[in-house]
Backbone:
């Protein structure tokens, strides 16, 4: 998984898998969902991310399987 935040456009991009994108769906006017050819979620793009999330407080924890 990769998470990128573009401060100049206030865009958050989360890549869950690096597969080829076959389709992009609008979840709402500021959120896009990218799917592979089998309908699996590959990535999500969120516009106006700082207004919709807590970007400065972003952290993550990796849990062993």
Residues:
């Amino acid at each position: 998984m990769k998470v990128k935040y573009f401060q100049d456009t206030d865009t958050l991009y989360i890549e869950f898998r690096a597969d080829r994108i076959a389709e992009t769906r609008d979840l709402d006017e500021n959120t896009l969902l990218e799917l592979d050819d089998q309908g699996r979620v590959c990535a999500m793009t969120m516009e106006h991310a700082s207004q919709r999330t807590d970007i400065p407080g972003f952290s993550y924890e990796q849990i062993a399987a």
In short: The chain has a mean pLDDT of 88. The beta strands are 2-6, 11-15, 23-28, 31-35, 41-47. The chain is about 5% helix and 45% strand.
